[in-house]
Amino acid sequence: IKLRILDAYEKLCYHVIGPKVRALGQRLNVFGLALQGDLAQMTEYNYIFSHNYHLVVPSLRCRSHNKVFPSLGKANFVAPNSAVIGNVEVGEESSIWYGTTIRGDLNKIKVGNQSIIQDLATLYPSKEGAIEIGDNVYIGPNTVIESCKIENHGFVGMGATVRQGAKIESYGVVAAGAVIPENTTVPSYQV
Q1: How far apart are CA 84 and CA 72, in angstroms?
Q2: pTM score above 0.85
């Protein structure tokens, strides 16, 4: 009988009490932002977080640049120590992992749906060109992505560098540690 009582208590905590306490905390956050008014610095990210309760840990480095806020939409995961700055648009179910820096200060960065940007990656456009990342793209850890275009299903291995003006076509692969020079195209299904 004790096991049944403990099982019932555990299920009650996991499935009823826990979610209600979390929801209460999130609502208190929204209420606190409303009470502070202009002092709360209601950024677009705070607005998104207050309306998407599945984002449990918001990035502390999601910042505007020249009054342009990153648009994280329904990103699956944004690591709390990643830096997402300025004119950045992230598609649905995409993830940005630990230590990643995405700087949309000079030009736009667009990340498609279900793309993964791994740990310590650095993405920065130039004034001359934006960064376009398609759907289902994998960008490995410790990579450097400059102003370039990576089409759907592209793969950039760890430690690789993709220079300005480069293009990775659909299903193109950049091997680990490789450097793709400026204005170079990696054809589809090629390494």
Answers
A1: 9
A2: no
